[in-house]
Amino acid sequence: MIGFLRLTRPANIVTAISDILGGAAIAWYTGGTHELPSVLLLIVATIGLYGGGVVFNDFFDAALDRVERPERPIPSGLIREKEAALLGTFLLIVGIVAAAAVAVYPSGVIALAIAIAALVYDKWSKHHRVAGPLNMGLCRGLNLLLGMSLVPFALEEFRALAVVPVLYIAAITLISQGEVHGGKSKTMLIAAFLYLVVIASILYSSVLLGNVVYASGFLLILVLLIFPPLLKAFREPVGKNIGKAVKAGVIALIVMNAAWAATFGAFYLALGIVLLLPVSIFLARLFAVT
């Protein structure tokens, strides 16, 4: 069971749940109702989709991991490749079915798109320096839209906001490309620029919606979480420092989604989302994030 849990990256799954809650805050801003069963189904959906996606990441990387990361569950022999494939398939199916239970369209369709995008990344695009980060970012952007699908009208009005997590995750994925063999300081600068675009976008939205005071507090926490380890990786772009920068970026997704909730006036929901942060940090001490 520990091996299966390691494959699913529990700390990361918590951040995916925050995507759903951030998207829900945007959806409810448009006048949707607080339908708790639907929210819970979408949380189950994102657990399945994210978990299945990262399981297949290790499945497709099994041969490479035997050389670079032999401690992982599959190359270490703890989990067989066939078992990993079955687990990943089961989780993806659960994710799609749970989303479709809310609504075949748009929720189920978005979930299917996430599953396809995750598999394309796992098998092909992650080996491409540009396509990989954009593909991984697409998965997160779609996950935010999945939360927004609680109110289909919200997708029509605010779907462009999905570009923001695309840029954020693209930055993390760029950084992570140097995690094993080391990276370049130039890559950290590009990632820092993308981070700043993300922060500026949320800040601008909060100004337009009149919630800049609330959102600014969460954005400040976001800055304090992501930039110190990124600066260290910039100064010394070795694998260890890059890994810490990636880990910080992934976990800080929770705060970014809290900022979205605050931007759209859901201050108490934003506080609730932030409470996921210590959960993710605790799980990150037990299970690998990257």
Automatic annotation (TrEMBL):
GO terms for molecular function: transferase activity, transferring alkyl or aryl (other than methyl) groups. The chain crosses the membrane at residues 12-30, 36-64, 84-103, 160-176, 188-207, 213-233, 245-262, 268-288. It comes from Chryseosolibacter histidini. GO terms for cellular component: membrane. Its main location: membrane. Pfam families: UbiA. This is UbiA-like protein EboC. Keywords: Cell membrane, Membrane, Transmembrane, Transmembrane helix. InterPro entries: Prenyltransferase_related, UbiA_prenyltransferase, UbiA_sf. It is a multi-pass membrane protein. It is found in: Membrane.
